[in-house]
Amino acid sequence: MFKNLFSKKKKETLDNGLQKTKEGVWNKISRAIAGKSKVDEEVLDNLEEAFITSDVGTDTTIKIIERLEERVARDKYVGSQELRRLLAEEISDMLQKPANDESLEDFQVKKGGDPYVIMVVGVNGVGKTTTIGKLAYQYTQAGNKVILGAADTFRAAAIDQLVIWGERVGVPVIKQKMGSDPAAVAFDTLQSAKAQGADVVIIDTAGRLHNKVGLMNELTKIKKVMQRVVPEAPQEILLVLDGSTGQNAFEQAKQFVAATEVNNLAITKLDGTSKGGVVIGISDQFKIPVKYIGLGEGKEDLQIFHSEEFVKSLFGDAI
Q1: Residue 112 DSSP label
Q2: Which of 50, 122, 154, 213 has the highest CB neighbour count under 10 A?
Q3: How far separated are the first and last CA of the chain, in Å rounded?
Q4: DSSP assignment, residue 243?
Q5: Residues of the chain with pLDDT under 50
Q6: Which of 102, 137, 117, 120 shows the shortest CA–CA distance to 265?
Q7: Would the CA dihedral through 58, 242, 201, 102 be positive or negative?
Q8: In the sheet where 116-121 sits, what is the strand order?
């Protein structure tokens, strides 16, 4: 089932970035099954505790345990090595796959038509602007012409930070002054993108959860205004979540999924946390694919998320 998808360098980056999560999640799982010749109720109880304390989430943990119970009941006898393989398979199956999974790796988009528009949402502090900068770099490296839109006009710092990233990766930023209408910035960005023949447009949005209704209205207005220029925009609504916040990321996901039609996720800061299990729970509970994971501060430290490689990094030689 599990095949090699990554170059050696990317695989090393992923393994190193998930080391703390592996130590947290996998060590707990190893302790849960240590010395056991078969899977019994005690093992299942220990596994349940291991997953919940690794920020996988209660609902997803229960689902994993129920699936294991079905397999154990059907197969009658499952040893610890077999259990590791079953866990890896079940977790990989739970992780949602992007619709265009096969074409992701080269960051290519169709040329010659309207630009591919990504609207990025998420609260302040999750690494939203940094993720935008990394995305711009990756798309540019793949030969695309990219333009950024600074539609987070609520904070002057957000505009300044995006401009810095634009300069760092050689991508123009369309901006207005602080307090301007975010939808107007998005409109100007798309008009400029079409005039310049840009391939990709990435729109930053305000990172605040002032209230669900206000957030919904603002994001809906931005989408409607963009569609006057590019009818299909935004083709992607990317929610950025901080993996190191664990269960808090679940609550943020609830808020933004209720406010707008999120269709992809980016989970950041996985290299500095043992809470990477949250990737499994969020993908499963919201049925939204994790498209990118952040594994460092460098402009190249954003990876396309592959569920099989993620699980292999966690389980190692067990699968």
Answers
A1: S
A2: 122
A3: 9
A4: G
A5: 1-5, 101-104
A6: 120
A7: negative
A8: 173-174, 146-150, 200-204, 116-121, 236-242, 264-268, 290-294, 302-304
